[in-house]
Amino acid sequence: MSQRRNSGDPSDLPPPYEEVVGRPSGQPRPTQHNSKPQPLPPRPNAHSNSLPTYSVPASSSVSVPQKADDMYTANLALPWRYPKDFFCKKCRNTGYKMGSPEKKCKRCWKQFEPKPKPIVYKRPPSNVVPLPPGARIVSPMPMGMPLSGAPGAPMRPMVVHPGHPSIGGVLCQNCGGRGIVSFFLDQETCRTCGGIGRVFPAYAS
């Protein structure tokens, strides 16, 4: 007669339910020497660094198309736009000579520079007395005061800058009404207007 097994022995207990369900069919039941349940595999961590990373491509910059008139002009600061299929070998459509950016391309400026409309005056104002050529400030006489001056208080001339409309004539196109022109790294008095910024054409009576 066989002896009754000791119920207090842990090796006599049945295996856990998870082990029986997870064991594939046909696998022999563990013996009493290997009845301890096998540890379950570790669960993947949601915050593990082993997860695949995906790189988001950077958004490409959208290029704004230029105007059709600006496509053939290398210097958009010019007062004109080069026409289609025109290319200047001296300035490469920049308006200034290559290697000498302070020198204008005479061919392009002569051909494409906008010509201002001439302003015709009937006669210059009689109350304006321009200074000799080379002066930077022009002091015309006040309105209504005779040239000889009234006895007593001295006349106070009105000071205006070169190119002021009260001088009369038309704006000097050589200096733009400034009375001076750039010469290399220096400035000199405009020889066309004599420094007053305005000229009196022959058709002005």
From TrEMBL:
Residues 55-65 have a biased composition (Low complexity). It comes from the Eukaryota. Residues 1-65 are annotated as: Disordered. InterPro entries: Hua1-like (IPR038910). Residues 28-37 have a biased composition (Polar residues). One of its GO terms (cellular component) is cytoplasm. PANTHER family: PROLINE-RICH PROTEIN HUA1 (PTHR28031). This is Uncharacterized protein. The lineage of its organism: Eukaryota, Fungi, Dikarya, Ascomycota, Saccharomycotina.
